[in-house]
């Protein structure tokens, strides 16, 4: 891929053609396709590829094909993870950095009174006074 001739990256058809070439190349050479490899095949960096994938640049022309390519890479990544074809630590790193996966734990805090529902302060006062009339200092 190092010696690939550059393509006009503004031309969506040339970009799609190179993406298809990259996946075919990986199949023929028994390589696992990667985000970085795809970017290199296109002659761009990963950041540019991610910008295209988010529609931040060239969204109208490039977004559909880049989304499809990234979805294919994500499907392959999931398959590799499920079938032990890549190291789990490496796989987790790739999922978080390329496909937006996160470790997320939601903690819901609900106030609870272990002594039961709180009574109205006035009701508590009346109850206390009824039980202890000698303390009535009104």
Write the layout of secondary structure elements.
Blueprint: H1 12-28, H2 35-42, H3 46-54, H4 59-82, H5 88-98, H6 121-131
Helix pairs in contact: 1-2, 1-4, 3-4, 4-5
Please, could you describe this protein's structure?
The structure is a single chain. The protein is mostly helical. It is 58% helix and 0% strand. The protein contains 6 helices and no strands. The chain has helices spanning 12-28, 35-42, 46-54, 59-82, 88-98, 121-131. Helix 1 packs across helix 2 and helix 1 (12-28) packs parallel to helix 4. The longest helix has 24 residues, at 59-82. The radius of gyration is 30 Å and the shape is elongated. The model has no long low-confidence stretch (mean pLDDT 90).
């Amino acid at each position: 891929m190092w010696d690939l001739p550059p393509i006009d990256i503004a031309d969506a058809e040339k970009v799609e053609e190179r993406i298809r070439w990259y996946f075919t190349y990986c199949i023929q050479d028994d390589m696992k396709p990667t985000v970085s490899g795809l970017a290199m095949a296109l002659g761009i960096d990963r950041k540019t590829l991610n910008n295209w994938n988010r529609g931040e640049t060239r969204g109208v022309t490039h977004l559909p094909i880049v989304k499809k390519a990234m979805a294919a890479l994500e499907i392959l990544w999931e398959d590799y993870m499920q079938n032990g074809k890549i190291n789990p630590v490496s796989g987790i790193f790739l999922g978080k950095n390329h496909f937006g996966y996160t470790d997320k734990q939601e903690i819901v805090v609900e106030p609870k009174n272990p002594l039961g529902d709180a009574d109205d302060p006035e009701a508590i006062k009346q109850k206390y006074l009824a039980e202890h009339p000698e303390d009535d200092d009104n």
